[in-house]
Amino acid sequence: MMELVCPAGTPAALRAAVEAGAHAVYCGFADETNARNFPGLNFTPEDMAEAVTFAHARGAKVLVAINTFPRAGAEPLWHRALANAEAAGADAVILADIGLLAHAADRHPALRRHLSVQAAAANPDAINLYASAFGVRRVVLPRVLTVQEIAAINREIDVETEVFVFGGLCVMAEGRCSLSSYATGKSPNMNGVCSPASHVAYAEEGRDLAARLGGFTIHRTPKGAPAPYPTLCKGCFTSDGQTGHIFEDPVSLDATQLIPELAKAGVSALKIEGRQRSRAYVAQVVRAFRAAVEAQAAGRPMPETMLARLTEGQKATTGAYAKTWR
Amino acid sequence: MDLTVGPNFFFWEAETIRAFYRDLAASPVARVSLGELVCSKRLPFWRDEIPAAVEALQTAGKEVALTSLALVTLKRERKLTADLMDLDLPVEVNDLSALIHIPEGQAFWVGPLVNVYNEGTLRWLIRRGARRICLPPELTLDSVAVLAQAGRDEGVPVEVWGHGRLPLAISARCYHARLHDRAKDSCQFVCGEDPDGRDVGTLDGQRFLTVNGVQTLSQSTASMALKVEDLQGAGVSALRLSPQSRDFAAICGAYADRLSGKISGADLAAMLRPMVPGGTLSDGFLSGPAGAAWSGEGTAAPR
């Protein structure tokens, strides 16, 4: 069966994910070492050890994301996170930075290393480089590839691949985007945040609600209409008289129906985005995807997705997996 | 401190490119990285200009490197990357996968699109053969200082983004094609209509971003005009100037005058403002609070 890798922003969400059928849960420490460094989220080293005990007792794995790029002069914070993950009994760490991968391979050789989507390894050459230089065993593929390209990659590499199937959707190569820090000073790579709430301001202006990020207007919606969160790349902008969602509509990813094709393409694990989501959301999504991977393993058709209402009324897309998206 | 000119991001006519590098050969820059960085579909239209440009630049005494693509996904793009090794020039790695083609210990440059955020990464790249490293534009001055020192300790010069619209993101999707309701495969090369990219503003008319095919740039032109002393103090060895369609030779000259002390930072900024596309400057990644900010008079920040 394909491995289902599920998000946990809190110990409660981790328990919910495991009880709902997650084969593996990914989570991070409550500091800038992880790419979902949001207030009120994430794990202390003690939480992590307890989470591993809980998950292992139920046959599930815990993958610790240490996937920001260590700040110059502050690498010991990231090195401690690695040591804490190993001490907690984590099944793997998810890393993006070359220097941190080198340190992990050198100092924690027995700790399994996965390559984060933030490393943007988008072709077999990059993946084989990370595998040979740092002993990476699994790669989370960037969301820039079609299913066909994923199949071609799997034919040329010896490590496992993991792909995103549900949740938020980056339209840029991840780990290579500084749009957020251009507008706010805070970035995924350096601070583990994108379009942070601390820099969002709403203003009622005439009949509109304007949503701004770092002072830049991301969208305007009529008062009373649902207003999506002002994520920079999903904003409504103008160019030479044209107005629209120039980068991407406010959509989210749902690749449920592609699971059989992804299995045929040689993908080992399916990842659900959403460490910032509630325990109830995580439980619902995990249950639905566990049913889907079981159906795939049994050769049954994919269940009709029940998840539309979980995407906050947003449209769903299969994103870059379909070539026409480009 | 000296000057490096980075690869041209935009899709220009072959004749334009020929004239650009001919002029650049006469300008006071120490080295040039050139080649197609953004989109492999463009390369056949100007590939034949590369040997002549390299020769003109080398004859003028400049160091030359060939850049890799920024995002390599297709088979043909992997082949193009492998073929870079045939030209007996250092490769500027802007996608890490290029390293698989470079034998251990063979010298290469590292471009600003490789994530070098800390000393561990910098040292690993140097052990692997990096002989020049241009840092990502997103870094703060504190980080730049630590990394420039680490480079000095290893004898490898560290350079920073000096001038040009900032490369903020790269995608599989072509935004130029999308703006014309086309898919990437049937783009008809519409990016060629915008020699400095196509500007994207907010619904309130704020200047914000610029799209260039699969690449998203800042609309402001980042400039280290006011930061030269800070960067010299930090141990940075070169400024990278990124090509724009107009007045580029004059811009190179103006930065050279700034480095030699002939003009002040304020003088340089005043000279640049009418020359850069859109007329706004930024230097906020270095000193905050956000990349779009400008530390001098006037502001690039949204109002």
Automatic annotation (TrEMBL), chain A:
One of its GO terms (biological process) is proteolysis. Forms a heterodimer with UbiV. Its cofactor is [4Fe-4S] cluster. Belongs to the peptidase U32 family. UbiU subfamily. The keyword DNA-binding does not apply. The keyword tRNA-binding does not apply. Keywords: 4Fe-4S, Hydrolase, Iron, Iron-sulfur, Metal-binding, Protease, Ubiquinone biosynthesis. The gene is ubiU. GO terms for molecular function: 4 iron, 4 sulfur cluster binding; metal ion binding; peptidase activity. Pathway: Cofactor biosynthesis; ubiquinone biosynthesis. It holds the Pfam family Peptidase_U32. Required for O(2)-independent ubiquinone (coenzyme Q) biosynthesis. Together with UbiV, is essential for the C6-hydroxylation reaction in the oxygen-independent ubiquinone biosynthesis pathway. InterPro entries: Peptidase_U32, RNA/ubiquinone_mod_enzymes, UbiU. PANTHER family: PEPTIDASE U32 FAMILY, UBIQUINONE BIOSYNTHESIS PROTEIN UBIU. [4Fe-4S] cluster binds at residues 170, 177, 194, 233. This is Ubiquinone biosynthesis protein UbiU.
Automatic annotation (TrEMBL), chain B:
Signal peptide: none annotated. One of its GO terms (biological process) is proteolysis. [4Fe-4S] cluster binds at residues 39, 174, 187, 191. It holds the Pfam family Peptidase_U32. Keywords: 4Fe-4S, Hydrolase, Iron, Iron-sulfur, Metal-binding, Protease, Ubiquinone biosynthesis. The keyword Protease applies. Pathway: Cofactor biosynthesis; ubiquinone biosynthesis. GO terms for molecular function: 4 iron, 4 sulfur cluster binding; metal ion binding; peptidase activity. The keyword Transit peptide does not apply. InterPro entries: Peptidase_U32, RNA/ubiquinone_mod_enzymes, UbiV. Its cofactor is [4Fe-4S] cluster. Forms a heterodimer with UbiU. HAMAP family: UbiV. PANTHER family: PEPTIDASE U32 FAMILY, UBIQUINONE BIOSYNTHESIS PROTEIN UBIV. Required for O(2)-independent ubiquinone (coenzyme Q) biosynthesis. Together with UbiU, is essential for the C6-hydroxylation reaction in the oxygen-independent ubiquinone biosynthesis pathway. Belongs to the peptidase U32 family. UbiV subfamily. This is Ubiquinone biosynthesis protein UbiV. It comes from Albidovulum denitrificans.
